[in-house]
Amino acid sequence: MSFRIDEEFVLRENQKALSWLEEDYAHLGRQLLRRGVEIERLAERAIAFRVAVPSWGVGTGGTRFARFAGPGEPRSVFEKLDDCEAIQRLVRVTPGISLHIPWDEPDSAAELKSYAAARGLFFDSMNSNTFQDQPGQKLSYKFGSLTHADPAVRRQAVEHNLHCLELGVKLGARSHTVWVGDGGNFPGQVHIRRALERYLESLRAIYAALPDGLRMYIEHKLYEPAFYSTVLNDWGTSYYCTRELGPRAYSLVDLGHHAPNVNIEMIVARLIQLGKLGGFHFNDSKYGDDDLDAGSIKPFQLFLIFHELVDAERDATPGFDPAYMLDQSHNVTDPVESLMTSAVELVRAYVQAHLVDRAALLEAQERNDAIAALQLLKQAFTTDVGPVLAMARHRAGGAIDPLAAYRASGYRGRKAQERPAAARQGAGIV
Ligand code: RM4
Ligand code: MN
Ligand code: MN
Q1: Residue 430 Cα, ligand 2 centroid: separation in angstroms?
Q2: What is the pLDDT of residues 199-247, one digit of tens each?
Q3: Which residues of the chain have pLDDT under 50?
Q4: Nearest Cα to 97, choosing from 71, 75, 120?
Q5: b/e for 9-20, b at 16 or more Cβ within 10 A?
Q6: How far, in Å, CA of 387 to CA of 26, rounded?
């Protein structure tokens, strides 16, 4: 029997901090009441928040220079789910899992589904992988997949996506996400318009097979691995393609897939307004697709994104139902610690966004009072909602301090014993 973080243990850890937390929560509650905010409403929102964890995030990632394996890394999809369970037990907002195929290809979908269910987990999105060649694969993706010049390669890439859809149905997934690295590294290498035509043709074939109840997300990315001209490079092209495909196709926004300084919250607002915001791959970045922990570099940007999301939620915008997912790669941290930290930061931004006095903001906007408008956002952003988050976790059975509880549990050390490195197979380097 492999080691699991015991619920009793979490409860005992929480007892150490509970009386202080109650004091802080009561104090913050009184402060917020002066602003007309009921702290209990915020705690309810914090408990209701959900974000899916990427199966590919629980192993150490790597850069194109090296991969430095961490101790006790998961060696199979089942061990990945064990780590996802540990995260969920401590933060209580991450029961959903995104799977990457073929990295997580199960021998038996039914077995994988019940393994997840026994741990209180479910499958959120399927992700296809046609950006790598797999052992024994007939045709290479070196020069692209869904947009390859050779129709046989395009067909193979479409088939792989159809396989993901079938698997998704068996696993009870809610969506299928397509990201391709197709494009050119040099000017002239790829015919820019023809590549997009081919992309759409391939996507139409996948969309036509989309099973009932599943949504399709397409993920744009400015560059990498195609350094000069990526086929699905921006949100505008993504929006055009989702419109062309049909009502169950949506655009997915990965925070690391834009040029530096791009106003991502505005992209989010646009996609909401156009009815095509599918969901997110949350992470953070300084320069490119850094896949750092959410909120580690630009916490204000994360807050402003949630400001738009909460605004749409409160307006009951028709069709607004975005899927929140993490997409990170960990090189220098324990992946479980990073994923927990990110999940907590998302709840923080979500709760802070609920603190914005929207009536006052609207009024400031209508009288062109830029300073007052910014102050209203800053007031929400600078409010320390830590006690709300901690109380919400405690009430949901999670840890008041997830990081401290995780470290005290000795989880990583136990996994290092249970999962000897020699037996580890190559995880995808992403
Ligand atoms: C890409 C993109 C995809 C992810 C791969 C591994 O940059 O973010 O979502 O599946 O990396
Ligand atoms: Mn992504
Ligand atoms: Mn990425």
Answers
A1: 10
A2: 999 999 999 999 999 999 999 999 999 999 999 999 999 999 999 999 9
A3: 426-430
A4: 120
A5: ebeebbeebeee
A6: 9
> Which of 221, 291, 327, 330 for mutating ligand 1's site (highest number of atoms within 8 Å of CB)?
327
| Coil/strand/helix, residue 212 | coil
Q: pLDDT digits over 151-208, tens only?
A: 999 999 999 999 999 999 999 999 999 999 999 999 999 999 999 999 999 999 999 9
Identify whether the C-beta of residue 169 lies closer than 8 Å to the C-beta of residue 221.
no
Residues at CB less than 6 angstroms from ligand 1? 127, 179, 219, 221, 254, 281, 289, 327, 430
Q: Could you give the C-alpha distances from 198 to 151, 157, 242, 255, in angstroms and in order? A: 9, 12, 15, 26
Ligand 2 centroid to residue 107 C-alpha, Å: 25
Residues 6+ positions from 422 with CB-CB distance below 8 Å: none
Q: Is the peptide bond before 211 cis (omega within 30 degrees of 0)?
A: no
430 C-alpha vs ligand 1 centroid, how far in Å?
Answer: 7
